[in-house]
Write a structure and sequence with these properties.
Length: about 525
């Protein structure tokens, strides 16, 4: 049919021919065959050696482009024998026009009608003529009309080299949806009276590590400290986490009466908590042998039915549990971790929650091991890692740490057991090696040369972006479609996202870099890779 366009995609390259008045099926086929490499036409058939051929036939349509807008004044003059008759007639006209904002024009565009003013004159009343002018302004476009074909093949790419130079067709990609990302919290930065807070402050007091202090730190005579945290302290951290694109925090679980739980308390009392969700990281070594001996676990169970608790897979509370050594688990009741996991599931569901999604985490992976079998024995839903350093006795670049994390993701996928992947923001225990602290025993094999170099903000953002792509690209291995980051504030151990200390102001470049990278990934996700011909 005249005006239609016939198009073919051959080996990814598009060819098209518009049907003219004198065309037949044979002439269209012949014209297209001349454009396609190694193609021939026999009558109305096109023969080509390729197996990848797509055909489209589309119609044409008329498009209108507006080039400018202009205004024209319009006056409606009403003459009447009496003022009363003039009022009735003008009122009817104005009422009709007042309901007409837009009206169609002959070229298919529309004009806008706007009331401007009313003017009356009775100078001809001796002749029984009474006048009223209704003045309007009409705004309308100047247009260019053209006929063009409908889109045949969608988004494409211009190729600049190869056997054929032309328009190569691409399917537009789906818009990237960032999966929920959470960061682990180790909250020894909120109460200067707490012994572990003081030990962390001592470890970071040397000048070389001051940049790893929390943003509200105070340095006096080379000794670091920080004030008791307030609600504003936590609210500022929530804002920073949202800037980084986080969906939730994973709180390390401690006894409710321990000031290491102060950060959790301040989060729960924050007016901003609804914007950032939370979950718990249970430590199986703290679960105890009886209900009265395991307040951290009982508090975790209570948290799983609270508002804003992080859920996955249609409302299942997300719960991380850190694996422990046999000696640490010796105090558990009969049935061990498997019975404890069943208890968690029962208690949460009795409290009105859904069956928790329990992820078994390898314990900081200071010794490299697989915890998949342990997760299966415990009856967990998935496995993962708290952190994945692969120390080799000497300094390594941050890229080696990200490679170790990626290797861990791939290894877990190969097991066939569901997983939650962990990204690494860093690992550098030197402050705790050089200034030993009782809360953090260090192996004699670790030396100050055994660490990963500090990540740049851009490198860290790139690694988090890789985590996102891995989760999205592996829905079978990662059924919960959620990711974990080590860590929000493991400042002494060397992994952090949170804003940190400088003498002038807090350093929030890591949060900004990650947030910007995630936003850019979303905005670019539906854009084709277009190579322009010079």
């Amino acid at each position: 049919m005249v005006g239609q366009t016939v198009g073919l995609i051959v080996d990814g390259v598009a060819y098209a021919r518009q049907v003219l008045a004198m065309d037949t099926l044979e002439t269209v086929a012949s014209a297209l065959a001349l454009e396609i490499p190694s193609a021939t036409a026999q009558g109305n058939l096109i023969q080509t050696a390729t197996l990848q051929v797509s055909v489209r036939i589309v119609g044409s349509g008329t498009s209108i482009m507006e080039t400018r807008r202009q205004e024209q004044g319009v006056m409606i003059a009403v003459w009447s024998a009496t003022p009363a008759a003039r009022d009735v007639l003008c009122s009817a006209i104005d009422q009709k026009l007042s309901a007409m904002d837009w009206f169609p024009l002959a070229d298919g565009s529309s004009a806008r009608l706007r009331y401007r003013e009313t003017f009356e004159t009775d100078i001809s009343e001796n002749a029984n003529l009474y006048r009223r002018n209704l003045n309007y302004t009409v705004e309308y476009p100047t247009t260019v009309t053209m006929s063009s074909s409908q889109m045949a093949f969608g988004i494409g790419r211009l190729e600049v080299s190869g056997a054929t130079v032309g328009f190569s067709c691409l399917e537009p990609s789906a818009r990237l949806i960032i999966p929920p990302l959470g960061a682990i919290r180790f909250d020894a930065w909120y109460d200067p009276a707490n012994a572990i807070d003081r030990q962390c402050a001592a470890a970071l007091s040397p000048k070389a590590y001051n940049f790893r202090l929390p943003p509200n730190a105070v340095l006096e005579n080379g000794i670091a400290s920080w004030p008791l945290a307030t609600q504003s302290t936590m609210d500022a951290e929530i804002a920073a986490a949202l800037q980084a694109g986080l969906s939730f925090w994973a709180f390390d679980s401690y006894r409710p009466d321990d000031s290491l739980s102060l950060a959790l308390q301040l989060y729960l009392s924050s007016a901003s908590r609804g914007r950032l969700r939370f979950c718990m990281v249970g430590q199986t070594s703290n679960w105890g042998a009886g209900g009265e001996d395991q307040p951290p676990l009982l508090r975790d169970i209570q948290m799983m039915t609270q508002p804003d608790y992080m859920t996955v897979l249609d409302g299942r509370p997300l719960y991380f549990a850190i694996d422990s050594s046999p000696a640490q688990l010796a105090g558990l009741p009969a049935g061990g971790v498997a019975e404890a996991v069943l208890t968690i599931r029962r208690q949460v569901q009795l409290a009105g929650g859904k069956n928790p999604y329990i992820v078994w985490l390898s314990g900081a992976s200071i010794v490299d091991y697989s915890n998949v079998e342990a997760a299966q024995v415990a009856g967990a839903d998935a496995a993962g890692a708290y952190a994945v350093p692969r120390l080799n006795g000497s300094e390594q670049p941050y890229s080696a740490l990200t490679s170790a994390a990626a290797d861990d993701w791939a290894a877990r996928s190969r097991t066939g057991f569901p997983m939650v992947p962990t990204a690494m923001s860093g690992w550098d225990q030197r402050p705790l090696i050089e200034t030993p602290q009782s809360f953090y025993p260090i192996s004699n094999s670790l030396t100050p040369e055994n660490f990963y170099a500090t990540a740049t903000s851009d490198a860290l953002a790139g690694h988090v972006g890789d985590l996102v792509q891995y989760i999205v690209g592996h829905p079978v291995s990662c059924p919960a479609q959620v990711g974990l980051i080590y860590a929000w504030n493991e400042l002494a151990e060397g992994g952090w996202l949170m804003p940190t200390y400088t003498a002038q102001r807090s350093d929030a470049t890591r949060c900004a870099a990650i947030g910007n990278a995630l936003s850019l990934a979303v905005s670019q996700s539906t854009k084709p890779d277009i190579i322009l011909i010079n």
